[in-house]
Structures are given as C-alpha cells and as structure tokens.
Amino acid sequence: xxxxxxxRAMFHLPEGMTYLNGNSLGPMPRASxxxxxxxxxxEWKNELIKGWNSKGWYTQTNTLxxxxxxxxxxxxxxxxxxxxxxxxxxxxxxxGLALVPERRIILSDSGNFPSDLYMAEGLMKLKxxxxxxxxPDPEQVMDAISDEVAVLLITEVDYRTGRKHDMKALIExxxxxxxxxxWDLAHSVGALPVDVxxxxxxxxxxxxxxxxxxGPGAPAFIxxxxxxxxxxxxxxxxxxxxxxPFDFALSYTPANAIERMRVGTPxxxxxxxxxxxxxxxxxxxxxxxxxxxxxxxxxxxxxVENRCPGVTLASPRNALERGSHVSFRFEHxxxxxxxxxxxxxxxxxxxxxxxxxxxxxxFNSEADILRAVDVLAQILRDxxxxxxxxxxxxxxx
Length: 397
Ligand SMILES: *Cc1c(COP(=O)(O)O)cnc(C)c1O
Prior knowledge:
Elements: H1 4-8, E1 11-12, E2 18-19, E3 28-29, H2 31-47, H3 51-54, H4 60-72, E4 79-81, H5 85-99, E5 105-107, H6 114-127, E6 132-134, H7 141-144, E7 149-155, H8 167-176, E8 180-184, E9 203-206, E10 221-224, H9 226-229, H10 268-279, H11 286-307, E11 312-313, E12 325-329, H12 333-342, E13 345-346, E14 348-350, E15 354-358, H13 366-382
C-alpha cells in the first residue's frame, strides 16, 4: 500500500493553507530547492555549454519522457517532454491528420479545454484545405464518431466538472471507423491510472505542472504509439527533431525515433525541477492513488451536501465517472472562492459559476477536506462572500 503520509511529507505546504488546487498547479516538492540549486551550481555555473554532453541535458527530453511514460503505460522511447501542452496538441493533431489524408473532420467536444480547440482551429486555418472541427456535447461524442472523422481529439477529464470519458470505449469505436485518436491527459496523468498501451491510443499529450508538480510552466509531453513513430509527420520541424541536428543540413529530415517530436532548445532549468518532482512518484501505486482520490472526493461531496445549503454538485455523482477534482455550482461562486482563499482554503473558479476543488492524494488528507468544508459552511452561513473586496476579478481566476 502506498503510504500517503510519506508522500505528503515530501511537499512544502505553507502553514495555515489548505491547498485544493493541485489539479491546476501542484505544490512545490521539498526536493525542488536542492534540485534547482544543483542545476545552477553543479551544472550551468561551471560546466556552461559542456553541460549539454557532460550533464546529459541533450537527452533529458527522453529520460524524463520515459519517467512519465511509466505513469501512463508507455514503453521506453515513445514519450518526450518539452514545449507547452498547446504545442503538443498541435503536433499530435497535425500528425494524426497526416495519417488519414483523405478525411477532413476533427471531432472533439464542447467540454474540451479551449486551448485544444483553438490549436485545432489554427491548424485547420493553416492547412486551408476544407477541414472542419465538430464539438458536440461530451455525452454525444460517442455517437458522433463516423467514417468521416480523421482525428478524435479528447481530453479525458473535463477541466470544469471533472466528468470523465470512457476512453477505452471511445478509442475502440474511433479505431473501428478508421479514425486516429489524440488523448489529452492534462487532468489524468498523476490523477488516474492511464494505460496508453492496452487502449492502443495513437497519440497522448499532457502537462506536468498540474498533478505531476513540475512547477509553473513545467514542460509538456507527447506520446506516440510505437507503430506510428516512424511515420508520424512532425509539423513543427525544428532542429531538435532532425535526424542529425549537428550536421546542420539545409533541409529537414525527421529523426527515425520519438525525437522527431522535439522542436527547439528546451528549458533545462525546468527539467531539473520536473525530475525532482517525478521522484515522488517512485513509490506510488496508481490504483492506491485512485482509491484514495475517490475516498476523499466522496467525503467532500457528502460533507458539502450536508452542511452547505445553496451550492449544488456540478460533478458526476458516480465516482467512476469523475476524475480527481470536484466542482460545485454557486451563483456567487467567484466571490465565494475569493472568501475561501482569504481564509487559506485554495480552490479556483471557472466561469460562469463553478467552484473547483482539486483532490490530490499525494498531499491532501481528510483534515484538508474537513477544514475546507468548515470554512465553506461558515462563509455561506454568514454570507461573508458579499464583502466588496471579494467581487473584484483578478486576471487569473
Ligand atoms: C491545462 C490544460 C491546457 C494548458 O495548456 P498549456 O499550453 O500548458 O498552457 C491545455 N489543455 C488542457 C486540456 C488543459 O487541461
């Protein structure tokens, strides 16, 4: 059994703060400070450019990719890190479209995170070749899979409500219709058991600053099914994806390996932080993590529904249909969340009326859940959310 009191002790959690936002930005692992200091003092400071070879910077896209691969069931050599998730979505969708050149439909759903849809729109505009994007309601997406679909672009867990798709069933149906699947793991990796191999998904992408705790702006990752690696077309043909970058050839030839999904020089300081954050996962069993997430989520829902009149559950009631965050609707959700934050209970708000609480078993405990409910109940009781200072909208909600 995974000992979650041990994993909790591996994080810096500020005194007096109840952090229920690990689904958006994970907290700082205690090891991060030494890791960044080692990077500065043992690597950059004295090695300078030699570090690309002597400290392995050049291959960290792959060594970190393989470490993430272990969390998503990917074999070695099929995952690389770098860039941002939006960029990785673009690359995966572009490569997917190129595998089915005669089709013109990208199918996603209206619950997807907007950036994924925006990247698909930008790609279609660039291709200027009759492509269109369909975004039915998430409940309708299964029925919308047809022989017209080139790429099915699905984020497993809805960023607002936590509603979780049945990826195995979606992938099976998409494949039976000859479509390629891009699975966005933004709210899945580090939150749920994921197996890209047994589900036979074609591409998977995700970020590492949410449940993986790599720090703000930590690099994204992309998985390409081994059967596609030799043929997946790299739309962003930067020199780091070239077969021989240091030949400096005038024309691009993609690496015959997952490196073809690299683009340009990655942020090595971020890699040092991500590497330290991934150490926390070495002793975590994903089935234990999921069981703990469900246990804490059920406690949270029961307590809120018993003690917080006026808020309504926005997430599916059935734990099997949720990821690892729980959301409630409340007309004055923004102000109420500001009032919670003022008392050290940190969740976030998603328009128009959703208060969102991430439950990350690596560091969240029953005590966190009970304190959050105590404070929420009190704010609703005394209506302190009405205070003028809680109405002002900050740029990041
Ligand atoms: C968080 C998230 C993103 C963010 O993309 P970035 O490029 O990292 O800013 C994109 N897609 C989904 C589904 C997300 O949840």
